[in-house]
Amino acid sequence: MAAPADTPRRRPGTRSPIPPGLRAAVPVLLLLIFGFVAPLLTVAAFSIAEPRSYDVFTSFTLANYAQIFDPANSVWMSFAWSLALAALVVGILLVACYPVAWGLVHVFGRWAPAISAILVFPLFVSENVRLYGWVLFFIKGGVLDGVLKVFGIGPVTDLLYTPGMTLFGMSYVYFSFMLFPMVLGLAMVPRDLVDAARDLGASRLMIWREVELPLAMPGILIGMLLTFVLAAGAVAEAKILGGQSVITIAQDIETAFTYAQNWPLGAALAMVLVVIVGALALFVMGRLDLDRILGRR
Amino acid sequence: MAMTQSAPEIPVLQLAGVRKTFGSFEAVAGIDMKIREGEFVTIVGPSGSGKTTLLRMLAGLESPSDGAIELRGRRINDVPSNRRPTCLVFQSLALFPHRTVGQNIEFPLKVRKVAPAERKARALELLRMVRLPEDIYGKNVMRCSGGERQRVALARAFAYDPDVLFFDEPLSALDYKLKKTLEKELKDLHRASGKTFVYITHSLEEAMVMSDRIGVMRAGKIVQIGSPSDIYAAPRTKFVAEFFGELNAIELRREGAGYVRADGAPIALPPTALESARAWALIRPELMRFAAPEGSANTVAGTVVNEYSFGSRNQFQVLSEGRTWLVEAPRGSDSPRLGDAVTLGWDAADTLVVED
Questions:
Q1: What's the CATH code of the domain at A99?
Q2: What ipTM does the predicted assembly reach?
Q3: Residue A285 domain-assigned?
Q4: Is residue B7 over pLDDT 50?
Q5: Could you tell me if residue A23 is inside a domain?
Q6: Residues B100-109: tens digit of each pLDDT
Q7: Is residue A220, in this structure, part of any structural domain at all?
Q8: What Cα–Cα distance (Å) separates residue B140 from each residue in A165, B35, B100?
Q9: B99 to chain A, closest Cα gap in Å
Q10: Which of A285, A283, A284, A270 has its CA nearest to residue A40?
Q11: A200, B59: Cβ pair inside 8 Å?
Q12: Which residues touch A88 (CB under 8 Å, ≥6 apart)?
């Protein structure tokens, strides 16, 4: 390295016509265009193609959408089940995760990393494998049934293949997706603020309502959004644990693309789901202050 | 609060043998102290001396491992922070970032279920008291400047109407000029309100300006407590003396009924009542002169190796037999130059003899 101080600056005239910000953004732009925008456009194009055809980009019809919104079609049931199950999962996980998240931040201390690891570990195993594990647990003659039999209780029947079991499966699978954003949210609440609120006379409930909850809200909202979006698009729980007692919208989409070979209908269903979930996500994201979460302020 | 008004001989706060340990670490190692009604007491100490832990115990955010804290004669060791008539202004100020200035100040009033109209009137009154404009009421507290936030935190503490206010170095993050202004305002506020203030800081300068009494803390203990002038004139230990600035320190050892220099060199000392085996003779740099005193042993020969300007005066470093001596002289006086051989001297009467 010779004369490091005298590296000549690029003169304005020789600068590349692309501004440096855009140049730096090119890799991300390419990824977004080819990885996200292009597939979505393809799905959108398929959704306006002739039903039961592969005439994408060459035909235009709203027949697929008409079919979905036709009152005679019962596909709305799948939407209703998926959105209702997703809403219930969010509700259940809010209640189930809050104490665990609070414990991880405030109580478990040096055990917190170990407990986090145990909670994360199941994610390393395929979702289907874990769900089949639960089948073995709940099935007639399975773990639960067998253990209860030893104590002379039972036989327990018909736990599996119910909407309730679908809900259980979703709550189990998406537990971490609510928990960890919530932990992040609660960890963002400065200890001093809680102490100050108490010092100024506030009760525990008041501290929670006025300080802890509002300041942890960004993390909690991210958790709610993640679990809702994932649960609204879930299919394996309803198939494996629910035994198709409930048909979710994701299963309808899958059927349209595979068994029915009606890609345009599947694409139209997917677009409707994207619009519903997208509207919800935009609404929630609009209320989040990412700068604060990332600690820039 | 007529019931809480008590005879003046009962201190508002009294600490007896207060200790706090975290595992094997003793943060506060036994403190006995009385704080009188309406006093401004400052606890000074370096980082890690236990002053913040002490303050948190007084505010009820930590409970003492041992000892008793009494508020107007009532033991409050186990009274939670939200039931104590005391309020802490945090070093971080701990303002609620998701709330406006008004909502922050009104928080303790909201807790007490004061009606909204009354809350607002009180908040505006407090804004005037801390010299903030009323139109700041609706501003988000995160958009306020450092000085504004400082005043909002103070107004919020006053809204709680505590008997005792605690301050945990609230001015440490501010620039010098603002700090000086706020120090004086805080002192004025103390006089006007008649409340008891307990303030902690690592800056003795800050303590000197505001306090009625200063306690110097070291390793969990209060090593000396007294009025600012007492502590300045008669520090009990080298540690306390050093808090007031740089010193020339000469180690002494007990011999017979008095002291001699530990290194055997001659020294003339003022009479002292001290009896410890080890002691120090301390001479402030401004009391050293570039001349040997007439007929006294208090003299050193050396070379000027450094000179610093302190504005109104200059400080010289003089190297003599491997150690440096500090001498200060008013600017413009007849001073030596770097490399000059000089003779230093000081009067026995200007020497402080203190414990280790």
A1: 1.10.3720.10
A2: 0.83
A3: yes
A4: no
A5: no
A6: 999 999 999 9
A7: yes
A8: 47, 37, 4
A9: 10
A10: A270
A11: no
A12: A167
